[in-house]
Design goal:
- The protein has about 280 residues and is mainly alpha-helical.
- The chain has one domain (about 5-275).
- It has 10 helices and no strands.
- The chain has helices at about 5-20, 25-50, 55-65, 70-85, 95-115, 125-165, 170-195, 210-230, 235-240, 245-275.
- It is globular and about 60 Å long.
- Keywords: Cell membrane, Membrane, Transmembrane, Transmembrane helix.
């Protein structure tokens, strides 16, 4: 029986082999492209729903701002403000169907990447696979809204309770840490759902945990690291001019896609190991 060190060594070697065999850099670039096409339609849907929810739009941007590089965030905010300024009141009817379809392209691309990780073909019909992508998109919107509501209302409730006892400043310091923990838990739930449902393989929910843990930690660290690097050591606007913000956004989406796909490869590795041990 192999010990944990052998398993970790085998995992690293196999992952390195799979990175080359499955062309993870190329797949990540493709997925980043679809993420870019899906990002703003997804934001359109969320901000179209805002009049029906007690959430200011700056709270939604605050969630993204916590992880996105500064120049990418400026580009997102600029486009979101234009969307809000020229928003069509009739969008929440027929027009939202096309927007959801566009937003689901990113999820549909993730499904393809995960199927490749498990070395399976997509046997589900086009309607089923696309319908699943749309449902997962709706699920992500719902979880994203919950991720906004919990910090906003949790902070207000906490301030009300702790101010009664004179511990407002202590609570605010604690809340900064708790908000990061809440974001990590929500990310973990999102990734678990993707790794469990998206591949064309019958899996147990817990079999998605290794990749979900890796993707959660990896995405947070890589996003904060890129944000710190761009904010302190690099100025893409000087090098690339007006398209610098677009390049930073694409770089962030590329790294995010690489981490997500690598998490799927990790789950596929453990799935194969479990079948071998049975």
């Amino acid at each position: 029986m192999k010990n944990n060190g052998d398993v970790r060594s085998s995992l690293i070697r196999l992952l390195w082999h799979r990175i080359e065999e499955d062309d993870l850099p190329g797949m990540s670039a493709q997925l980043a492209y679809y993420f870019l096409l899906s990002l703003f339609p997804l934001l359109i849907v969320i901000f179209t729903l805002l009049p029906y929810l007690p959430i200011p739009h700056h709270d939604i941007l605050g969630v993204i701002r916590g992880f996105a590089p500064p120049e990418a965030m400026e580009l997102i905010e600029k486009n979101v403000n234009e969307i809000l300024t020229h928003r069509n009141r009739g969008l929440l009817s027929f027009g939202i169907i096309g927007t959801i379809w566009s937003a689901s392209n990113g999820i549909h691309s993730i499904v393809k990447a995960f199927n490749r990780a498990y070395n399976v073909k997509e046997s589900r019909s086009f309607i089923v696979s696309r319908g699943m992508a749309i449902l997962l998109t709706f699920g992500m919107i719902l979880v994203f809204i919950v991720a906004i509501i919990l910090p906003v209302f949790g902070r207000e409730i906490g301030l009300f309770l702790f101010s009664t006892f004179g511990y407002t400043s202590e609570f605010l310091r604690l809340w900064n840490t708790l908000s990061l923990v809440v974001s990590a838990v929500i990310l973990f739930l999102i990734f678990t759902g993707l790794y469990w449902i998206a591949p064309n393989v019958k899996l147990r929910c817990r079999s998605a945990f290794p990749g979900a843990v890796f993707a959660t930690v990896g995405w947070i660290i890589s996003s904060l690291g890129l944000s710190y690097y761009v904010g302190n050591f690099s100025n893409y606007s000087v090098t690339y001019g007006s398209i610098g913000a677009i390049i930073v956004l694409m770089l962030w989406l590329y790294i995010s896609a690489f981490v997500i796909i690598l998490g799927g490869e990790i789950n596929a590795f453990y799935s194969e190991k479990n079948r071998e041990n049975c």
